[in-house]
Amino acid sequence: MSWLTAALKSSVGRKFLMGLTGLFLCLFLVVHLAGNLMLYVGPETYDEYAHKLHSNAELLVIAEVALFAAFAVHIALAISLTQTNNAAREQEYAVKQTKVPGRTLNLLGMTPDNTMVITGLVVFLFLIVHLSDFKFEWAWGDQLDGLEPYAKAKFILADAGRVLIYVVGTIVLGVHVAHGLASAFQSIGFNHPKYTPTIKGASRIFGVVVALGFGSIPVVFPKLVQPEDADVHFQLEKEAGEVRLGEQIPVKANAHDNNERGSSAEDRQDKEHKAAAAEAKHPVAEAPAATSPKEAEKAPAEGEKAPAEETAVPAGDTANGETAEESKE
């Protein structure tokens, strides 16, 4: 272990180890971003990914310990190298310059070294917030109990304050790795005039991808309407008597409409009962249908009176005590 102690005592050895931890953390960002982008696919895909990720507890613990160790070493080496650089300067420079052309940023005249310290501090604070939200759930009490990973992300990112923190944090993270990736390759010895411009260009592209990839999630993801949300919305509208998907109807208006529909149906039913009762009291006589053309001709036209039919009285019948013959006289 003497070689490790000797390496950590020299600035070159510390920069080399810091470059290795930086590359490891950039690799983690790629994997983490790929997993987070599954939020755009849907709840089933993201929840399945999250459950598989946590299904092997032993490997998960090893990965988390290695990740936290890399963070701790990277941060400790950054603080140590910054203190060493500051101690080597007896006084502040009147004009900050660099031996590497184009290394000075056009942001208040700051060099990337100073910028990396500031962005690194912001990223560290952002990391604390991120872990407190999704791993330890310190700030949410029991509000996240029982929620699936997809629902948990949607609940947390529905908070406007969290959206602002995550957007700013991911942008600063992109700025940090845009220089940090190229610096890490340089620290481990990949510094050649032929390949350095390509590495720097790839580092800038990587920073943009990280900033846009992570930064889009708190802005776009909470506004997405997932299929299950649409199904629930349609079911609520269907129960309210509406079938127009996508139109939101106030609850009071729906209740009023339902009362009106119910009262109108009762009125129609009452009218039908009254009409049926009136028809029962005064039935309408219907003319017998003609079974043949001759019978149809004999049938009286509408509006004409049918001739009275003569009824024959049997000879044996009497009316008022008189026989039929007496009644003729």
If you had to describe this structure to a student in words, what would you say it looks like?
The protein has 329 residues and is mainly alpha-helical. It has two domains: 9-88 and 104-223, 3 helical TM bundles of succinate and fumarate reductases (Up-down Bundle); 225-269, no CATH class. Helices cover 66% and strands 0% of the residues. It contains twelve helices and no strands. α1 (2-9) packs across α2 (11-36) and α7 runs antiparallel to α8 (196-220). The longest helix is centred in the N-terminal third of the chain and has 32 residues, at 57-88. Mean pLDDT is 76; it is low at 230-262, 290-294 and 301-329.
Which value, in Å, is the CA radius of gyration? 45 Å
Terminal-residue CA separation:
157 Å
Helix-strand category: mainly alpha
Q: Strand share of the residues?
A: under 5%
Based on Cα principal axes, name the global outline: elongated
Low-confidence stretches: 230-262, 290-294, 301-329
Q: How many β-strands, per DSSP?
A: 0
CATH level 3 topology of the largest domain: 3 helical TM bundles of succinate and fumarate reductases
Secondary-structure element series: HHHHHHHHHHHH
CATH architecture of the largest domain: Up-down Bundle
Number of domains: 2
Number of helices: 12
